[in-house]
């Protein structure tokens, strides 16, 4: 453990949970239990640009995990996290237990910011996923769950950029170059069709 309370994994160890594990074993206890020890720290998203997460979040490789209060405004000192309109269901035992939203970090002020290669997955517990004994208890539990999200931030590494192709160029004059975000959307087509077919 570091002095700040965050965890540094020793060489050879990695933290690579599935989406299902992040929701059921980390986020759900965080939002439901009054005191739950966890290796993932709480961070105020507005106080940290993504390149400052190393050493503050739980970092494994280039991935940074942390809890944050759910908020509409995700601005930092130098930019803001922008939702890109992609939301995926997280399923466990054929039931939807949560969802994750994709965001991209933009430098500057909205809406004229400049897109960066930093991506964040924001995990949410579904309010209807877990039932309690009474309506009163369920309402209280739902309210608690809405306060926290689990974030996984990382810098996008494109194989095309390693080959010298400008994959961040939105201008596709040649008809062959795509931005990394376009590539990302295209790779999600099949997955989104499966997600949309899942029962609510």
TrEMBL record:
Residues 9-156 form the NAC domain. One of its GO terms (biological process) is system development. Pfam families: NAM. InterPro entries: NAC-dom (IPR003441), NAC_dom_sf (IPR036093). The keyword DNA-binding applies. GO terms for molecular function: DNA binding. The keyword Protein transport does not apply. Keywords: DNA-binding, Nucleus, Transcription, Transcription regulation. PROSITE patterns: NAC (PS51005). This is NAC domain-containing protein. It comes from Phaseolus vulgaris.
